[in-house]
C-alpha cells in the first residue's frame, strides 16, 4: 500500500465572526491525518482517486492522530462535490442543492462514523465503506471527507461568553470514484435567469448545470444584459479560470454596480467556454415590481447611499410641531373658559 502524510495543511477554514479581538479555537486540540492509499489508487495525488468496479465494495482508511494531551472528538462529514457562485469546487458542508442530473450522490455510496474519539496522543484509523452501484457507470462520482475537532461542553460555554473571532479549522480530503478511463464530453444546460441579491447587492443570476459526469475545467463565463428589444448593454461581466464539479449547477451572479433595480422585461446573452467548447444562450426574463422593491430595500449599497432621510425627518418634525401647537391652543382655550366661569361666579356674589 502507498502512504502519503498530509500534516498541518488546512483545506477549509471556517470563521465565526463576533465583535472584538481574535480568539484561537481549540488550539490545544490539534490533530493530523494520514491517507492510506489502496492498490486501486490512480496517480500520485493528495486525495483518493480510486478505480472501481460495478458493485464493488471497499473500505479505505484515514489515520487520525491526536497531538493533544487530552481527549478529543473528531467530527466526520461526507459531502458530494458542489460548485459555488465563484466557480470554485466545494467538498465540505454546503447549502448548495444537488443538480437534477446527479444520478449517484457521493454520500449515499460512501459511509462512515459521524465522529471518532481519540485519547491523548492516540492514533486510530477512520474507516470508510464504499459501495459502488451495481450498474456500470461512465464518469466520476466526487465528494469530500470533512474532518473537524468537536468542542467540549466546557469549550462551547466559553465560546458563548467569548467576544472575538472564533476560528474553527477543518481538513477536507477529496475522493474521486470512477470505473473507467472513458473521456466524458462536458454538457452544459441553461436553467434560468432571475433577479436576486449577491452579498446583499442587487444582482442578476444565471443558473446553469454541468449535466455530464466529469469536471468542467478552465471555464469562462461572459454575460450581457439588455432591456428587451434594445441592444444597449446595461450590465456585463466576464470571468475566467472557473471549474464545475460533475453533475452540479452554478448560480452565477452579475452585480448591478450599486444601481437601483427596476421592474421590466430584460434579455441575457450568455457565452460559456471550456477547453475549446462553447455554449451560447439568449434568455428573456422579467423583474416584477415586488422583486425590485424587495431587493432595493435590502441592497446595502443603496441603504448607505440613502443615508439620513431628511425629508422624512422634516415631516416628522413638522407633525410634532403641529401637534404641539394644537395642544397649546386647546389648553389655552380651556384656561380662558375656566377664568370666564370664575369671573361670572364672583359677579353673582
From TrEMBL:
Name of this chain's protein: Uncharacterized protein
Record Pfam families: WxLIP_HBD (PF11797), WxLIP_PGBD (PF06030)
Keyword Disulfide bond: no
Segments forming domain WxL Interacting Protein host binding: 161-296
Family annotation (InterPro entries): WxLIP_HBD, WxLIP_PGBD
Keyword check for RNA-binding: no
Signal sequence segment: 1-27
Top-rank taxon, per record: Bacteria
Transmembrane segments: 312-334
Ranges where the WxL Interacting Protein peptidoglycan binding domain occurs: 31-148
Keywords: Membrane, Signal, Transmembrane, Transmembrane helix
Amino acid at each position: 500500500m502507498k502512504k502519503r502524510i498530509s500534516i498541518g495543511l488546512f483545506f477549509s477554514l471556517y470563521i465565526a465572526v463576533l465583535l472584538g479581538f481574535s480568539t484561537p479555537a481549540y488550539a490545544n486540540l490539534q490533530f493530523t491525518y494520514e491517507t492510506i492509499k489502496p492498490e486501486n489508487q490512480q496517480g500520485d495525488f493528495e486525495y483518493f482517486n480510486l478505480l472501481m468496479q460495478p458493485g464493488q465494495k471497499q473500505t479505505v482508511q484515514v489515520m487520525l492522530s491526536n497531538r493533544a494531551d487530552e481527549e478529543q472528538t473528531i467530527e466526520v462529514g461526507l459531502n458530494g462535490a458542489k460548485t459555488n457562485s465563484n466557480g470554485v469546487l466545494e467538498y465540505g458542508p454546503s447549502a448548495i442543492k444537488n443538480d437534477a442530473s446527479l444520478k449517484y450522490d457521493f454520500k449515499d455510496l460512501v459511509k462512515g462514523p459521524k465522529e471518532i474519539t481519540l485519547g491523548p496522543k492516540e492514533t486510530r484509523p477512520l474507516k470508510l465503506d464504499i459501495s459502488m452501484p451495481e450498474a456500470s457507470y461512465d464518469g466520476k462520482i466526487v465528494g469530500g471527507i470533512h474532518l473537524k475537532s468537536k468542542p467540549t461542553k466546557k469549550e462551547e460555554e466559553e465560546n458563548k461568553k467569548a467576544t472575538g473571532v472564533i476560528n474553527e479549522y477543518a481538513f477536507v480530503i477529496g475522493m474521486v470514484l470512477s470505473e473507467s478511463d472513458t473521456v466524458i464530453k462536458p454538457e452544459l444546460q441553461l436553467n434560468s435567469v432571475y433577479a436576486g441579491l449577491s452579498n446583499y447587492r442587487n444582482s442578476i443570476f444565471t443558473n446553469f448545470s454541468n449535466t455530464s459526469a466529469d469536471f468542467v475545467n478552465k471555464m469562462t463565463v461572459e454575460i450581457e444584459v439588455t432591456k428587451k428589444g434594445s441592444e444597449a448593454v446595461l450590465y456585463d461581466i466576464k470571468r475566467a479560470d472557473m471549474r464545475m464539479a460533475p453533475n452540479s449547477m452554478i448560480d452565477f451572479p452579475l452585480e448591478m454596480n450599486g444601481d437601483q433595480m427596476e421592474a421590466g422585461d430584460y434579455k441575457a446573452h450568455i457565452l460559456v467556454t471550456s477547453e475549446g467548447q462553447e455554449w451560447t444562450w439568449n434568455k428573456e426574463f422579467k423583474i416584477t415590481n415586488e422583486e425590485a422593491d424587495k431587493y432595493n430595500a435590502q441592497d446595502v449599497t443603496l441603504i448607505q447611499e440613502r443615508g439620513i432621510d431628511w425629508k422624512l425627518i422634516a415631516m416628522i418634525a413638522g407633525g410634532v410641531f403641529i401637534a404641539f401647537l394644537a395642544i397649546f391652543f386647546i389648553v389655552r382655550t380651556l384656561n380662558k373658559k375656566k377664568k370666564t366661569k370664575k369671573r361670572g361666579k364672583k359677579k353673582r356674589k
